[in-house]
Design a protein that fits this description.
Layout: H1 2-9, E1 14-15, E2 19-23, E3 28-34, H2 38-42, E4 45-50, E5 56-61, E6 65-66, E7 74-79, E8 84-89, E9 98-104, E10 111-120
Parallel strand pairs: 2-10
Antiparallel strand pairs: 1-3, 3-8, 4-5, 4-9, 5-6, 7-8, 9-10
């Protein structure tokens, strides 16, 4: 029912996680949801990395483009009928920490959701990696 309300209330929406935290060497999946209108289902999907407020570098798109720095590390999975776009980045590096946009259409005037991806050094499983000395 929620999806129907969304579809009626807005011509188009796209949303995703605001913050994702992972660790160096790990992997992360950015899952974004969009209103499955005909245009949205067929339009170009992308993930880009913000370089500044005005500039966003495409990492991967549904036009079979993959940025050289992410070759072999990134994959996109699109489920148009359900309105789900998901991008997985593997073998994470500290330099992958940034704001990303998952979106539809063109980078600068399309629909997008902004995600803060934070990559920590050390293993998250212990829970101690970043917080030693703070009791």
């Amino acid at each position: 029912a929620e999806r129907e309300v969304l579809a009626q209330g807005f011509s188009s929406t796209l949303y995703g996680p605001r913050l994702l935290i992972s660790h160096v060497g790990g992997s992360v999946t950015i899952k974004c949801y969009y209103t499955p209108t005909s245009v949205n289902r067929h339009d170009r999907k992308f993930l880009c990395k913000e370089l500044s407020h005005k500039s966003c570098q495409t990492i991967i798109s549904s036009n079979a483009f993959i940025d050289q720095n992410y070759k072999e590390r990134v994959s996109m999975y699109n489920k148009p009928q359900q309105g789900i776009l998901q991008v997985t980045i593997r073998e994470l590096k500290k330099t992958d920490s940034s704001y990303y946009r998952c979106g539809i259409g063109k980078i600068y005037n399309g629909l997008y959701a902004r995600v803060n991806l934070t990559i920590l050094e050390g293993n998250l499983d212990t829970g101690q990696a970043q917080f030693k000395g703070t009791a």
